[in-house]
Amino acid sequence: MKEVFILSDYTQFFKELTKQLEFTENENRIISLPSFENESDWHDWTTQLFKNNTISKLVIPISIPTDNPINTEGLKMALHIRLNYELPLLQRLTPIILLSDFSIKNIIVKNTFDTDNNPQNLLFTKGVYLSSFDSEEIIKTVKNAEPCPLKDYQKQVLNKIKILPKASIGKHSITNAWGCFKLAQVTGLRDEIFKHNAISEHLKTLYSKYLICYNDAYTQEKRIDLNPIKCNSKKILFIDDQADEGWEDLMKNIFKGARNNFVCINSAKYKNSETKLFHDSEGFLTECRSHIGKDWDLIIIDLRLNPEIEDIDNEMIPPTEFSGYKLIDEFLNENEGCQIIVSTASNKIWNINAALKRGASSYYVKESPEFNYSVNETNKHYENFKSDVHKCFKRCYLRDIYKIWKSAVEENKNQKDKFIQESNSMLDIAWSLVKQELLDFGYLTLFQIIELYANQEYDHKDNSIKLEGKKCYMIKTLRKNETWKLTFNKDSINGDYFSTGEEQKTGQVRPTNLYKASCLLKFKYKKDDNFLKLFGNLNDLRNKIAHEGSKRKASSENIKKVLEIIKMIRQ
After folding, report:
1. What is the tens place of the pLDDT at every residue in 115-168?
2. Residue 215 confidence (pLDDT) above 90
3. Of 35, 40, 62, 185, which shows the fewest CB atoms inside 10 Å?
4. How far apart, in whole angstroms, are the C-alpha atoms of residue 427 and residue 316?
């Protein structure tokens, strides 16, 4: 019988047995079993076993060591082989002949099984055979053993295995590893992320392996992201309590164009190196807060940054109490124009909606082992994430607008209380419109503040303004002639404007808002002709929007210039 291998613990009993088996004449087919400290070691060893050998059938004693019959370590080994997603399915389904002098009934009665892994269920799956230690029976069983057909893997193997998560392993940690691994698959970074100890440690447990096989979530296909995120010179802040467990490496690769402008808060220095639990969660949050107010083009924040108290089964915690939500609130309190993508392993829509309602731009749901998403579906989620990132980059101008808007709001020293109150309301309306990217209407609302001020300051009865408490006449009338303090300039390209120098006019001409505001800018605020010409251009834009409707004419720069004027006149 070719390519039949046997796993041996090399006890004296087993040495004698192997001498009686014809298929063990080649000593290379007798594989020595090492001891394993964790499930990750089991997984890696079985992977190498099949990569280094061409195995058609495999003989494993149920009890390892064989001189202690009351244990089922061999069953666990067989289970790791059946669920080793790194192996092609044909190798996973290699016929396994388990050796024991107990019947199936006695194996179950005499052993205490891990209630999470339930290895005894493997005895009832197709392609697994039981033989006593009698050499003739072993030879006969090996000869007749057939693999489970590939098409029956789900029905005859996976459906009969019941594996549960271990209570000692946090659900949050498994979900983190799963979500990181799935995203890495579609970004072409699977192999790099899989080498990360924190990821592989969780994904090589029997529970995770079972889920990956059941959901067919592992693919040998090597993917390449042909349309990576363009983020040269973009400043990106990434905040995640499990950044040190794979996410930092993954995100740094996704945003590799940002180079050193990609900043990740190092959560590891606030954790116990062995348990991976926070010993200083407040220190971690304090460092996160130290980045509030900086010019980030994009901020990605995990919703639950302290899972030990925020990710508790059967406990309903209001989303506004999550540490990530509170951070989002603090960033936005400083600057409502911040572009924030909330990252969460929770699919609870009320948690996501709370963050969006507060002002987060969009969200990314980390995949969880509880939900079966194909690789193609995962790729769709990633493409949506990239689209949201690009939208945030396009909207990061709001951050700069908000800075000037906020400083304008804070300038309230103008003695005209009525003007301050009215302009406060108009500033709020304008920001709401701008935030919705209705820049034309936001611009129009802001310009109306300047017109409001001009009409309050300019006395239309005698065409005067007050300078240092004294009336100064902007238009002097002598009989039918008028002398205007500023000269009108016609400019059909950049917009009409006024400049320094008196101008004679015949007959009474009613001064426009442009003239009133220009007089204030020139004589009260000492602005030069270049500034007056610029204001004429801003006024021309105002007229086009007012007369032609919203046609995306106003730019963020236009809005910032108008806000600077508002800031000046509110002082």
Report:
1. 888 899 999 999 999 999 999 999 999 999 999 999 999 999 999 998 888 766
2. no
3. 35
4. 39
Say how far residue 26 (Cα) sits from the centre of its chain. Answer: 54
Residue pLDDT, tens place only, 238-292: 999 999 999 999 999 999 999 999 999 999 999 998 888 899 999 999 999 999 9
Residue whose tokens read 């209001």: 318
Torsion of CA 162, 166, 170, 171, to 10 degrees: 10
Pairing type for strands 340-344 and 362-365 reads parallel
Which structure tokens are listed for 62? Answer: 């149920």
Strands 4-8 and 475-478: unpaired
Q: Is 303:344 a contact under the CB 8 Å cutoff? A: yes
Which ranges of 367-435 would DSSP assign to H, the alpha helix?
A: 375-395, 397-410, 417-435
Of 236, 316, 555, 570, whose CA–CA distance to 424 is shortest? 570
H/E element, 506: strand 497-506
pTM: 0.86
3-state helix, strand, coil in the chain (%, to 5): 50, 15, 35
Q: Which residue has the tokens 């911040």?
A: 338
Q: What percent of the chain has pLDDT over 70?
A: 96
